[in-house]
Automatic annotation (TrEMBL):
Catalyzes the conversion of dethiobiotin (DTB) to biotin by the insertion of a sulfur atom into dethiobiotin via a radical-based mechanism. Its cofactor is [2Fe-2S] cluster; [4Fe-4S] cluster. Binds 1 [2Fe-2S] cluster. The cluster is coordinated with 3 cysteines and 1 arginine. Binds 1 [4Fe-4S] cluster. The cluster is coordinated with 3 cysteines and an exchangeable S-adenosyl-L-methionine. Homodimer. It comes from Novipirellula herctigrandis. [2Fe-2S] cluster binds at residues 130, 162, 222, 292. Gene3D superfamilies: Aldolase class I (3.20.20.70). Keywords: 2Fe-2S, 4Fe-4S, Biotin biosynthesis, Iron, Iron-sulfur, Metal-binding, S-adenosyl-L-methionine, Transferase. This is Biotin synthase. It catalyses: (4R,5S)-dethiobiotin + (sulfur carrier)-SH + 2 reduced [2Fe-2S]-[ferredoxin] + 2 S-adenosyl-L-methionine = (sulfur carrier)-H + biotin + 2 5'-deoxyadenosine + 2 L-methionine + 2 oxidized [2Fe-2S]-[ferredoxin]. It comes from the Bacteria. Residues 1-20 are annotated as: Disordered. Pathway: Cofactor biosynthesis; biotin biosynthesis; biotin from 7,8-diaminononanoate: step 2/2.
Amino acid sequence: MSISTDSSATLTEPELSPELPMSRYDQLADQVLDGQPVSREEALAILDAPDTHVPAILAAGFKIRNRYFGRTVQMNFLMSAKSGLCPEDCSYCSQSKVSEAPVPKHNILKRDDLMKAAAQASEQGAKTYCLVISARGPSEREMKAVEEIVPEIKQKYDLDICACLGLLNKEQADRLKECGVNRVNHNLNTSETHYAEVCTTHTYADRVQTLKHVKAAGMEMCSGGIIGMDEKSDDIVSMAMDLRELGVHSIPLNFLESIDGTPFQGKSNLTPNKCLKALAMFRFVIPDKELRISGGREIHLRSLQPLGLYVANSMFVGDYLTTKGQAPDADRQMIEDLGFEITTKVE
């Protein structure tokens, strides 16, 4: 698969504009539901719409969400199986080699710890247990640990398994499929054009290649990005278009937590409405795939968190890798107050 990511191309005037009636978003939703994808210009217009258009955008986006997911919400539980000690220089990450943030540092956890976390995921109503290590890619020891623990978790708990192990080669992807991993997470994070501003120790193409190995092995691809890293609107749309072309199954959308001690310390230009427009744009671009509100939702969406679920159909429950999340009881109450329901069905 070739991915066109030339965000430097000259764009035509957006089809949407603040002067057009808000009913145009509803028309776009109908267009998507009729099988006609939104264009780059239309996606940009959603992302750059005035804040006064947010209610209309969310209402239109909900029509798409409701068609494919009804009022269900999928919960994902994140487990940091190996923390710190990463040789990569991703500027947003507290675990990277260029970070001075005080984070736990440990090699991959032992079986009992991973099983205990799986039990917690099940108790909290998660559909997917996300096993994460900080690394450029998994060592042989780490691969074997995953191969041993995944069948045991799946035998005991009704959980899907998502592995986030860094860059993978074909053999490693095949081994993960063989041991029972359902999906692999490897985020594109931003556009190809902007990627060098975020990381220099590997490339955007490296990340795309890992996703291709995952797809070839027969696992689902989980890939999204981070909003708020000084990217342009066109970068965000390019990332969405690339994810659509790749055919990813699950899209986690993070909002930058500018952690002290990282190169992106103090970087923040997000508002709740900007985050909501980004979520909605992804729903319009990739209408029938799991869209997950991920890291930073508590900080940047704040009191508007519930509105994100009118277009997203998934979220993390509990804490993130090195930062705290909203209490699980608060998440469940938020979902209940919306009239939505948590689904734990493993397909």
